[in-house]
Amino acid sequence: MSTTTATAADTTTTRYRPSQRILHWLMAIVIISALIIGLYCSYLSPGIPLRRALLDVHKSLGMTALILIAIRLPLRLSLGEPGYGQPLDTLNHYAARSAHILLYALMILMPIAGYTTSAAGGHDLPWFGLFQWPNLLPLDKALERTAAEIHEYGAYCLYVIVSVHILAALWHHFFRRDEVLKRML
Ligand code: HEM
Ligand code: HEM
Fold first, then answer.
1. Ligand 1, closest atom to CA 41?
2. Four-point Cα dihedral 181, 63, 54, 29, nearest 10
3. CA 117 to ligand 2 center in whole angstroms
């Protein structure tokens, strides 16, 4: 009896599909780790062994994000998003929609800019010490610098938008006590 109720409450209409939830949390862990390691590396002197080792982990996480977003985006476009039991007001709706579009854009831009920085600079493209990704670009120092700048400004945008995104999720859950966080759990 309760199983029926649980299944009904587990509404396919107000929660993201399991595949979408798994990808969201997997990517959240990967991207937040990449952000923290990238930020830390930017304070270390270029060339020291610790920075090189951490950047290898950073690049591996970043390339993982690139693979995951290539799976996630088509899934999102085909599955769409669940409806709300209680629709958000117009301001909240558009704020959330814009933040999500920006997050998707940055999840595509950041790994591509990171890859371009490393590939055009002729640097390593490791994946957790298991193999090297193919370098598809010719050596091009100007392209390396431009991509590094895009990567850096993209990182500033991500710090802000991810922080606002997390605070908004917590605000919905603890202050408004609505369903927003549960849609992703
Ligand atoms: C979601 C994916 C990624 C995020 C969120 C991210 C974030 C960051 C952050 C916050 C920094 C420090 C700020 C800066 O100096 O630019 C950084 C630096 C760096 N990232 Fe990424 N990154 C990602 C993917 C990648 C990928 C895929 C690669 C290469 C395969 C890469 C290579 C680098 C390199 C080489 C630096 C040092 C740049 C420099 O010192 O000029 N990143 N990244
Ligand atoms: C502790 C960290 C995080 C929490 C608590 C969280 C929470 C949530 C929640 C509750 C939703 C559903 C919002 C709604 O349906 O209106 C959501 C959606 C989303 N989150 Fe997060 N999130 C976190 C980290 C991240 C990170 C790091 C990223 C990417 C950089 C991200 C990207 C997204 C995107 C793009 C959506 C929209 C999903 C879609 O419509 O396909 N989230 N998040």
1. 12
2. 10
3. 27
Tokens 């922080």 belong to 163
> Could you tell me how many residues make up the chain?
185
Helices assigned H by DSSP within 42-140: 49-79, 90-120
Conformational region of residue 173, where left means phi above 0, alpha means psi within -120 to 50, and beta covers everything else:
alpha
Question: Is 16-184 CATH 1.20.950?
Answer: yes
> Rounded distance, CA 36 to CA 166, Å?
15
Alpha-carbon distances, residue 133 vs 62, 63, 119, 127, 141 (angstroms):
12, 9, 9, 7, 20
For 37, residues 6+ apart whose C-beta sits below 8 A from its C-beta are 54, 57, 58, 61
pLDDT tens digit sequence for 86-110: 889 999 999 999 999 999 999 999 9
Query: Ligand 1 center to residue 58 CA distance, Å?
Result: 7
pTM to 2 decimal places = 0.94
- The residues with which 82 forms a beta bridge, in sequence order, are none
Domain boundaries, the chain: 16-184
